[in-house]
């Protein structure tokens, strides 16, 4: 552990050369927190044989009315490239957490369908994530709500919704 905040120091040095210190500080902090949280989430999910990306895909299938979705629709909802969805689904299928099926109405499309094993893994993994406050236990619930609201305009401006 460093005896100083390296992001504060980077911002200080940045300010000696360029403008935009508040945005630089915020984005650097955001990216570092993303790395830290994702690392902790992956540690929590590893015993379940999951990464956060695979967990998100399984949860999406649990949320779907039939327990299955076309891979293209999964990519849209997870906001990832089609190649990434294919890779995620292949890995989940290899672990018997989903099965790949031809779409009954569109022979060109492939569906990912969650299995009972996949549902059980989601339940167990979710219980562990909730118990660990999704790696955000250092923040109060009101602060978490505020953080979500603070980030909403950035997501909206980027076209998330």
Structural features, described:
There is one protein chain. The chain is mostly helical and 161 residues long. It has a domain of 107 residues: Arc Repressor Mutant, subunit A (Orthogonal Bundle). The protein is built from 7 helices and 3 strands. The protein has a 3-stranded antiparallel sheet with strand order 1-3-2. The radius of gyration is 19 Å and the shape is elongated. The chain starts with 5 loop residues before the first helix and ends with a helix.
- CATH topology value of one domain: Arc Repressor Mutant, subunit A
CATH fourth-tier homologous superfamily of one domain: Winged helix-like DNA-binding domain superfamily/Winged helix DNA-binding domain
Q: What's the β-strand tally?
A: 3
Q: How much of the residues is beta strand, in percent?
A: 5-15%
**Average of per-residue pLDDT values:** 96
Poorly predicted ranges? none
Please summarize the sheet with the most strands: 3 strands, antiparallel
Overall form: elongated
Order of helices and strands: HHHEHHEEHH
Using brief descriptors, characterize the structure shown.
161 residues, mainly alpha, Arc Repressor Mutant, subunit A, 3-stranded antiparallel β-sheet, 7 helices, 3 strands
């Amino acid at each position: 552990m460093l005896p100083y905040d390296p992001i504060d120091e980077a911002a200080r040095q940045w300010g000696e050369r360029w403008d935009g210190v508040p945005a630089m500080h915020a984005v650097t902090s955001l990216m570092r927190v993303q790395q830290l949280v994702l690392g902790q989430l992956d540690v929590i999910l590893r015993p379940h044989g999951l990464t956060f990306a695979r967990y998100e895909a399984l949860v999406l299938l649990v949320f779907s009315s039939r327990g299955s979705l076309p891979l293209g629709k999964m990519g849209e909802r997870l906001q990832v490239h089609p190649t990434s969805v294919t890779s995620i689904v292949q890995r989940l299928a290899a672990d018997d957490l989903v099965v790949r099926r031809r779409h009954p109405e569109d022979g060109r499309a492939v569906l990912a369908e969650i299995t009972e094993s996949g549902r059980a893994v989601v339940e167990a993994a979710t219980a562990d994530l909730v118990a660990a406050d999704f790696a955000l236990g250092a923040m109060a619930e009101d602060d978490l709500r505020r953080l979500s609201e603070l980030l909403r305009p950035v997501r909206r401006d980027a076209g998330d919704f």
